[in-house]
Amino acid sequence: MTAATEPGRATRRRGDALLDAIYAAVMEELAEVGYPALSIERVAERARTGKASIYRRWPTRLDLVLGAIDHVMPRLDDVPDTGNIRDDLLLVLRRIGAVMGSRNGIAARACVDGTDDELARAVRERLIPPRKEMMLALLHRAAGRGEINADAVTQRIAETGPMLLHGELLQRGVITDAAISEIVDEVLLPLLRA
Amino acid sequence: MTAATEPGRATRRRGDALLDAIYAAVMEELAEVGYPALSIERVAERARTGKASIYRRWPTRLDLVLGAIDHVMPRLDDVPDTGNIRDDLLLVLRRIGAVMGSRNGIAARACVDGTDDELARAVRERLIPPRKEMMLALLHRAAGRGEINADAVTQRIAETGPMLLHGELLQRGVITDAAISEIVDEVLLPLLRA
DNA sequence: ATTGTAAGAAACGCAACCGTTCCTTATGGT
DNA sequence: ACCATAAGGAACGGTTGCGTTTCTTACAAT
Predict the structure, then answer these.
(1) Can you tell me the distance from the alpha carbon of B23 to that of B67, in angstroms, rounded to the nearest whole number?
(2) CA–CA gap between residue B85 and residue B135 (Å, rounded)
(3) CB contact under 8 A, A170 and B112
């Protein structure tokens, strides 16, 4: 009847197009109400699909949410290497901060900080170790160059940057560039050179 | 008919006894399902009272929750003063850590970390500034004694200890004494003496 | 002992979700 | 052009929570 590409009327999607829409809807719901209050019904409505298409694919709410996080959270790829520890730190913290502050980051945080232990553990295991490894790689390289004290490269200090970013977001609601510089210059670098 | 102090049958409470029961029930619910999924119905059931007694007192869910937090979270009283910055830090972080890890601490964290901005802001404003002031008081005294570098006593560093405790709880689920010692000896003291 | 107050319990109509089923028709593959 | 597949929608009965109302009765104050 009407043209296939009518504006208001979304055409019927399959495969990845549909998956993407559902995953996006899950992240939005997570960010807004968190996991315990997330309802399949609203996810379906948001993704402009039916509940059946969701129940057909995921047996439980937990599977759906973990699927969404796996699909949507950026795998971090290249470790920055400017040849300068300060610039490396600024880059990596800015990148982590940007992810944390994004809509998907807020959704993921709602899971990590949330009240469901199983979900929190699963999401933590996915997101935290890679960031920590990245920090450690960076610090080891700097120690090799003699820029920082090799004894200061510990698990604890590798965690400190991301933890402070997280705290910053919790306390102030936003991660500014000034805050990142402060964390680097006032906390991390003094520690690494101690 | 039966004796007034019959064991299984709780007698009808008024005033503070009832208030305490309701507030405790709110904190339990917060810790288990968080704010968006907290229902007045379950709070009433948990407190062994009726919904009417709750609606009679608090106009909204938010008022109820804030009331519970105000009533239940410990006001921190004396600033520790051992004459030694390391011991002061250990004491204060242990105290904060104990509160964070308690049932009420978990409930409060569910609010602070949660998805409701209004609630998160209100709870943050109640809990964070006093802790931060405590840290600052402690650090200023130590600087006065010449134990640490006066230039190192900044807002940021005063926040760092509690933030790392928070991160510790999120990542490992528990705050051990070993973790506190590590934070003090590996992060805070080196920074303060830099 | 009497009396005002509010606790506790039950029920109201209403709305949101649950997880499932059924039907249609658009869509991609052949 | 045909056809198997699954998307999109609607409706199912059941549960949970909403916020309010009503009633009985335990309690505290006098």
Answers:
(1) 8
(2) 11
(3) yes
What is the CA A185 to chain-centroid distance, rounded? Answer: 24
| pLDDT tens digits along B118-157 | 999 999 999 999 999 999 999 999 999 999 999 999 999 9
How many Cβ atoms from other residues are within 10 Å of residue B146's Cβ?
8
* Residue A53 reports pLDDT greater than 50: yes
Which of B34, B113, B186 comes nearest A156 by C-beta?
B186
For the domain spanning B15-71, the CATH number is 1.10.10.60
Q: Where are the alpha helices (DSSP H) in B2-152?
A: 15-33, 40-46, 51-55, 61-72, 85-101, 103-112, 117-144
Q: Is the dihedral of CA A57, A60, A66, A68 positive or negative?
A: positive
Cα of first residue to Cα of last residue in chain B, in angstroms, is 74
Return the closest-CA partner of residue B113 out of A117, A126, A167: A167
What mean pLDDT value characterizes chain A? Answer: 92
Residue where the block lists tokens 């990245």: A134
Contact predicate B63/B57, CB 8 Å: no
Q: If phi over 0 gives left and psi between -120 and 50 gives alpha, with beta otherwise, what is residue A173?
A: left
- Cβ neighbours of B194 in A, within 8 Å: 190-191, 194
**What CATH number was assigned to the domain covering residues B75-193?**
1.10.357.10
A3 or B178, which is more confident: B178
User: How many CA atoms within 13 Å lie on the side-chain side of B158?
Assistant: 19
Q: Which two tokens stand for residue A91?
A: 């880059």
For chain A, the structural domain boundaries read 15-71, 74-193
Does the A74-193 domain belong in CATH 2.40.160.20?
A: no
DSSP-derived 3-state class of residue B14:
coil
- How big is the A-B interface in CB pairs under 8 Å? 94
Q: What pLDDT was estimated at residue A9?
A: 54
Place of tokens 């996080």: A69
CA distance B62 to B83: 42
Q: Decide if B92 contacts B80 (C-beta within 8 A).
A: yes
Dist CA A19 CA A64 (whole Å) = 11
What lies within 8 Å, CB to CB, of B112 at 6+ separation is A170, B120, B123, B124, B127
